Structures are given as C-alpha cells and as structure tokens.
Amino acid sequence: MDDYIALPTGVVQWGVFTPRAANATITSVTCWADTGDAVIHLRRNDGGDMLNAPLACNGTAGTGLNSYASIPVGYFVGMWATAGTAKRINAAITYRTAY
Questions:
Q1: In terms of CB atoms within 10 Å, which of 1, 27, 55, 75 comes out highest?
Q2: pTM of the full predicted structure?
Q3: Element at 14 (helix H, strand E)
C-alpha cells in the first residue's frame, strides 16, 4: 500500500484469515488504523458478511459476529474499509478450532 493514498472504501482485501487444518470460528476482531477514523467489515469468500455491524478501528474488540464467522477449511476471509481515510489498517482476529 502507498503511505500517501487512503485505502479504497468498498473494495474487499482478501486473505485476512483462512483455516488450514480444521474449521475455525472467529470469536472477536480488533482493528487499529493510522488515522483513527477507519471503519471495517469482514466478508467470507462465499459472500457472507461476518459482523452484525461495521467495526470502528479504534482498538476496541468487536464481538458482534454472526453465523458466517464459522469458517470451513478452504474458505477465507476478506476485510474492507467502509469509511475513513486510513492508509494502514491492522486487524487482530481471535478464533477457536475443533482441535
């Protein structure tokens, strides 16, 4: 990413998370942005939005996840900015697996 150009809103950045050996269930998501004004959403690659509402990237964990937060092996998660002028967004995902 370019440090001088804000990330595009509405464009899914794939590859945020993918389970490799067993199904996983995301239990919380926390994000931070360089500008403090970014808002994100998560989407599973089959089109299901995983958060009940967009998440502000201010370091507060979001736990409003729905049934799409269950990720089968071979599926993957993308993130996109829905608002803000951030040039860098970091997301931390907490999850559990069956093993």
A1: 55
A2: 0.84
A3: strand 13-17
